[in-house]
Structures are given as structure tokens and as C-alpha cells.
Design goal:
With 357 residues, the chain is α+β, with helices and mostly antiparallel strands. The chain contains six helices and 19 strands. The longest helix has 35 residues, at 104-138.
Length: 357
């Protein structure tokens, strides 16, 4: 099993604790009984990478003298402040002067980094709790949030887009004239706590603040278990939040209007159809897709959709599409196998209707 992105704050806390322990060991235990001396950096050699995206590593060779004998040994760490010819403090084992380590400064540096990481993460958790409390006071958070009852009108074609090219990416639904009907704008970007978002309903003139967590993906290294992709919405699992508000989605793989291989969705609220949706390329408007040609239409994205809906209150439909866009899951349980099974079932039913065996 491999887990990506799950509870990034817990990873930060673990890294901080490990850094403090490692720094303490380097400072107080690893060089216990060692003697201090001054060494000169004689070479810094960049090591070859095994993988293209691997961090660059270096071998640092220092020269120092103990009891009239000169030693040239590799140091056990590298600092970007190192330069050939620079003098640095090192510690050596008096029983075997060829065993050399960096001075206590490196261990102290590691401890400081660990303490800062731990303190910063704890502070961010406190701030998150304060933000959640404010949302509760406003009555817009998690289980307290309510959505208008469905209001059906004439069917219209709408377009869901995701802002790309920035870590503070948001989402919006546009009409055919490219008027933004509803959007989610990120107001706060953070690495260890949920993002701050304003959900702006331009049609009804309403804005609600929400906390949208980092995407979490659990991958199981077996074909039998479905990966699970999710995020926290105001402290609640997004798929549970949607289900609690009556959302059910039937999804299957297929082509939108014979032009695109992607995912088709039928979204229900309390068993009433809210919308039919298909994933598209990033050119969601037909005129844009036509300009970019057939190849642009064949490349589907889980973050762009065409929508056909009679629903006039778009808030809950919008949140449902955000869930698919941010997790890149294809089914309403955060996985993909349900969509695969629906696709196979639809193909079997279609053959039966056509009288095929």
C-alpha cells in the first residue's frame, strides 16, 4: 500500500520530530568524546543521479592535521555554504583520527529546522481550528451548511472550468455567453492546513467561505482494491458530505457526442436528476474546441465539463463537480471501479436491447 498526500500536517509533524531527534543525536551523542579541530575543504564533487528528478548530492573532502599527521577524509554532510578552500570546524575520534564528522553546528541546525517545522505545523492547526470556529459562527460550515431545494427551469448547457497554471487554482461555471454564474476562488494557500475558499454565487449575490482540504489519495498495490481519492470539505469527507445532502452519481466511461473519450455523469439529488455531465478537453466551449481541432477534443481532462441541466440553484451541483475535478476520481465514492462496472453493465444492457448475444 502507498499513500500520497494523506494528512500532510501529520507528515510535517513527523518530519519535525525526526529532525529534532536526529539533530539531538548529531549534537550530543554521535561525536561524544570527539576532539574539535579546524579542517580545510579541498574538494566538492557532485554525484551522478540515478533518476532525473532525484536531488543533487555531493561528496565533500576535507583535510586536517592531528598530532602532526595530515588526514584527507570525506565529511558526512554537505552545506550550500561550503566552498573549496574554506575552513570549517570538524570533530574527529581521538582513537581513530580518520573518523571525522561535522561540528555541532550542523546538528543544531537540524534541530532548529525540526523545531520550526513542528511549531509552524502546530500553529497552523490552531489557526485552522480558529477558522472553523468562525465558519460555525457564520453557519456555513460542514454539517451546518444547507442548500436550496432544487428549482427546475428550462434545460441549458453550461460549462465547468478549472484555473490551471497556478497553485491557487479555482473553479467556475459559465454559460454560453461566458458569463460566470458561480465560482470558487482560493483566498488562502497553505501547505499544512485546508485552503480558504470563497464560493461566490453571482446569480443570487451570495458568498460563502469554506475550507477545502488537500487532496488525499490512498493507492493499494493490487488490482482488487480500488484507490480512494478525497479531500476534507469544512472538516468532513467530501463524498460523505455530498451523500448526506442526497447526491448520487451514475458514471461511465464513453465518448461525449462521439467526439471525446472521457467520463459521462448523471447527477441525482434525492433520486431527482440534476444534470447530465461529460468530461471534455480544456476547450469546453464548442467554438473553442472547433478552433483547436480534433486533436484538442480527443484529450479529455477530469477538470473540465460540459453540463446539461434544468437546475437553477447551482451550488450543490457545482460542489459535486469540484469533488470530481480536485480528486480526479470518476465515481461518487472517490474511486474508479464503480465507473468501470457501470460501463460494462451499460454495454451488456445495450447489446440486449439490440438483440445481440
Amino acid at each position: 500500500m502507498s499513500i500520497r498526500g494523506i494528512r500532510i500536517r501529520y507528515s510535517a509533524i513527523a518530519m519535525g520530530i525526526i529532525a529534532i531527534i536526529l539533530g539531538s543525536y548529531l549534537t550530543f551523542f554521535q561525536t561524544k568524546g570527539f576532539e574539535k579541530t579546524t579542517a580545510t575543504i579541498v574538494s566538492i564533487e557532485e554525484l551522478p543521479k540515478n533518476f532525473e528528478d532525484e536531488d543533487t548530492s555531493y561528496d565533500v573532502t576535507v583535510e586536517y592535521t592531528v598530532n602532526g599527521q595530515t588526514y584527507r577524509e570525506q565529511l558526512n554532510y554537505y552545506s550550500p555554504f561550503f566552498k573549496v578552500g574554506k575552513s570549517i570546524d570538524v570533530r574527529y575520534d581521538p582513537k581513530d583520527p580518520s573518523v571525522v564528522h561535522g561540528g555541532k553546528g550542523f546538528g543544531i541546525y537540524v534541530m532548529v529546522v525540526g523545531i520550526a517545522l513542528l511549531a509552524g505545523t502546530i500553529l497552523s492547526i490552531i489557526r485552522e481550528k480558529q477558522s472553523m470556529q468562525k465558519l460555525r459562527e457564520w453557519g456555513t460550515v460542514g454539517k451546518d451548511v444547507t442548500y436550496p431545494a432544487p428549482f427546475l427551469g428550462e434545460e441549458r448547457e453550461l460549462y465547468f472550468l478549472t484555473d490551471l497554471g497556478t497553485p491557487k487554482y479555482g473553479h467556475r461555471i459559465e454559460d454560453a455567453e461566458r458569463h460566470v454564474l458561480i465560482e470558487a476562488k482560493m483566498t488562502k494557500y497553505t501547505l499544512t492546513t485546508p485552503f480558504g475558499f470563497d464560493f461566490i454565487d453571482h446569480v443570487n449575490g451570495k458568498t460563502r467561505a469554506h475550507l477545502v482540504g488537500h487532496e488525499e489519495t490512498t493507492e493499494w498495490d493490487t488490482f482488487l482494491l480500488d484507490p480512494h481519492c478525497t479531500f476534507q470539505f469544512d472538516g468532513e469527507d467530501i463524498w460523505k458530505h455530498l451523500k448526506r445532502n442526497g447526491i448520487r452519481v451514475d458514471s461511465s466511461f464513453g465518448g461525449g457526442n462521439g467526439k471525446l473519450v472521457g467520463v459521462n455523469y448523471t447527477i441525482y439529488r434525492d433520486d431527482m436528476e440534476l444534470a447530465r455531465v461529460e468530461s471534455t478537453s480544456r476547450y469546453v466551449h464548442e467554438e473553442d474546441a472547433a478552433v483547436h481541432g480534433k486533436l484538442g477534443n480527443l484529450i479529455s481532462s477530469s477538470r473540465f465539463f460540459r453540463i446539461w441541466t434544468r437546475e437553477q440553484n447551482l451550488e450543490l451541483l457545482f460542489l459535486t463537480l469540484i469533488a470530481f475535478a480536485r480528486t480526479e476520481a470518476s465515481a461518487d465514492n472517490g474511486g474508479n471501479y464503480k465507473t468501470i462496472f457501470n460501463t460494462l453493465k451499460n454495454q451488456v444492457n445495450k447489446r440486449k436491447e439490440n438483440g445481440e448475444q
